[in-house]
Structures are given as C-alpha cells and as structure tokens.
Amino acid sequence: MFPVVDPGRKKTLAAFQKIAGIRFKSLELLNLSFVHRSVSNESNCKRNNERLEFLGDAVLGAAAAVLLYEKLPENPEGDLAKIKSVVVSEDILSAVARVLQIDSLLLLGKGEELSGGRTKNAILADALEALIGALYLDSGFPAAFAFVGRYIGPEITRAAGQDYHLDYKSLLQELSQRLFRVYPEYRMVKREGPEHEQLFWMEVTVNGRTFGPGVGRNKKGAEREAARMAYEALEE
Questions:
Q1: 94: which strand partners?
Q2: Catalytic one among 129, 138, 155, 223?
Q3: Is 174 among the residues known to form the active site?
Q4: What's phi and psi for 139, nearest 5 deg?
C-alpha cells in the first residue's frame, strides 16, 4: 500500500514534474520515491523508497555506462570507470537533487527532520536514485535514460575535461578485488575535538597491507583520504 497522496501533495508533485521535465502515470509511485525510511519507522505505513533506491542505483549505473561509451569513444575502459565513479557519486547526485529541489519534497520522520535530514547528502542522493527507479517502473528505460542524460550527461563532460574528484573508495574496492580478490577493511585510529569540530583518523588494510591514516572532518572523508593513499600506492 502506497502512502496517501492528498490534493496539496498532488499539486506539489505536479509542479516538480514540470521542473524535472518528466511525467508520471502514477503519482503514488513518484511520491514513494521521496519517502525516507524514517517515516515508515514512525508510522503504520511500511513502504519507503529503499527498494526504489536499490533499483534506481542499477538503472543509473547502466544509463551512465551507455552515456560514457557514447560520449567518450576514444577513452579506455579504465578512464570510463574512473569518470563513472565520479558522476554517480554521492556528491554529484546530492547536488543534482538540490537543483531539482528534492530537499523540499522529502518526507521524513520527526527525528530525521530535527537532525537536519533534508540537508544530508546521503539522503538526497538516495532519493534521486529512488526517483530514477520509480521513473523506470512507471515509464520504462528510455524515459529513465533521458532523465539521466539530461542531468548526469553534463557531469560526464565536465569530469572528462578537467581534473576531477575521484571516488577513491570505489576505485580501491575495484582494484583490490581485481588484484587480490579481497575487500578493503577500514579502521578508525582516533577521533579528536569537540562534537561540532571533530577530526577522524582512518586506516585501510588491503591484503595484509595497511595504508594511512587519512584525516577528515567525518569518517567518510577520512576513509576517502585513506583509500586515496592505498589506491595510489597499489597502482604504482
């Protein structure tokens, strides 16, 4: 059972479709793509956007791969993989979600709302992937591909034409799988500072070798830096 879409919400979703350049047959499916799991945790409605996010991640990956193949005919597979890891990263997806004003459409539980869920990159990126999954179910791959091309296509051009921020965690995982058939293991070395200004030190171990520590304002940032150190060392 889908969450109820009242008349006011229908108007909001109609306005969003005009902004995004899409048209849904099922407003209930579109609405579900914005329902965070915190809503189902706090209410009787057990449906949320996690399954759509899972599907949308796969559809996005396929669409991005096709776009890369078509847009960059001279680039080797390694370059395509690196650029793909950038354009489907949390940073890029959350930025696109903000452009589409998805932050204002999110349905969050009270706790998540109070903790600033509307501004969290992970939640915004997940909602965008859920939207892509919902569009695929509602209108098929051509509609989802057109949407990805419209909003992710420019990021491919941008990433291919300049130095770009690599998703080193994804790259390291792919490399360690290819070389050693193992996954990287991250460990927090220490954490210092007051709650609002903490620094994290993270190490990563690959096939018995430890790299780092990477330092960051949060665990993900520190893990990324440790992954960069490991990736660059293993590439050499």
A1: none
A2: 129
A3: no
A4: -130, 0
Would you state the pLDDT for residue 144?
97
Buried residues in 192-209 as b, exposed as e (16+ CB within 10 A): eeeeeeeebbbbbbbeee
Q: In the 8-state DSSP scheme, what is residue 195?
A: G
What lies within 8 Å, CB to CB, of 125 at 6+ separation is: 90, 93, 94, 97
What CA–CA distance (Å, rounded) separates 81 from 50? 25
Q: Closest by alpha carbon to 32, among 65, 60, 62, 1?
A: 1
CB-CB contact of 138 with 26 (8 Å): yes
pLDDT digits (tens, 9 = 90+) for 62-84: 999 999 999 999 888 888 888 88
pTM here?
0.71
pLDDT category at 112 given cuts 50, 70, 90 is confident
**What would the mean pLDDT of 161-182 be, rounded to a whole number?**
77
Question: What is the radius of gyration, based on Cα positions, of the chain?
Answer: 19
Q: Clarify whether 232 is annotated catalytic.
A: no
**What is the edge-to-edge ordering of all strands in the sheet holding 199-206?**
185-192, 199-206, 209-216
Catalytic one of 53, 57, 112, 155? 57
Q: Is the dihedral of CA 205, 206, 210, 211 positive or negative?
A: negative
Separation of alpha carbons 225 and 97, rounded Å: 25
CA 25 – CA 135 distance, rounded (Å): 9
